[in-house]
Amino acid sequence: MSTVLFVVTGARTLTLSDGSAHPTGFWAEELLAPYRLLVEAGHDVVFATPGGVAPVADPASLAEGDAVALAAIPGLAAPRRLEDVGAFDAVFYPGGHGPMADLATDAVSGALLSGALDAGIPTALVCHGLAALVAATREDGALAAAGRTVAAFTDAEERQGGLGERAPWLLETALRDRGVVVDAAEPWADHVVVDGPLVTGQNPQSSASVARALLERL
Questions:
Q1: Residue limits of the DJ-1/PfpI domain (predicted)?
Q2: Mind listing the pLDDT tens digit for each residue in 143-189?
Q3: Per-domain residue ranges for the chain?
């Protein structure tokens, strides 16, 4: 049995390019599907957020029954502070636009990711969860994931998904500009990329597939 650390956004809004506040949080499916698969396989899941704030699901992500299912997850409503996390065997970052608002600039999360990648610890991120890679930098400012190949929410999906040019920045472009190789599939395709210990998924449709790939490495 392994301990899997879920690093979840604590953000509730994303400031758009026009200055307006867009309600956000984590994407429900991207947390629920991997959580269920990992727990069913016998692994322990612990949750952490920046500052230990209780995370919220993006209202747009909630399908019927999701709110009840999320409320029943032990520890989700009272996560650990990122600064206080202990040892873990794998780490998982769900998406939603929230990570663009906090994890993309969180130094504690960035150091955690850099350390996990350097140590070869299985590290999985899905959709906008990959925004956390922007904060995982070396002393020279280069990204720890530079040169690696990932799947991430694409610019095309951002435009099709509603925010479009109102997004404060585009994840695919930001990763490419920092030296990360983005393997982009067709919009909304279930697409997973594995590069050493790094497992990444393109969108919500990839959530369960990312979790299965992570399970293979535990």
A1: 28-216
A2: 999 999 999 999 999 999 878 889 999 999 999 999 999 999 999 99
A3: 3-215
The answer on pLDDT for 32 being more than 90 is: yes
Q: Domain 3-215 classified CATH 3.40.50.880? A: yes
Q: How far apart are CA 134 and CA 144, in angstroms?
A: 9
DSSP the chain: --EEEEE----SEEE-TTSPEEE--B-HHHHHHHHHHHHHTT-EEEEEEGGGPPP-B-GGG--TTHHHHHHTSTTTSSPEEGGG----SEEEE--SSHHHHTGGG-HHHHHHHHHHHHHT--EEEEGGGGGGGGG-B-TTS-BTTTT-EE----HHHHHHTS-GGGSSS-HHHHHHHTTPEE---STT---EEEETTEEEESSGGGHHHHHHHHHTT-
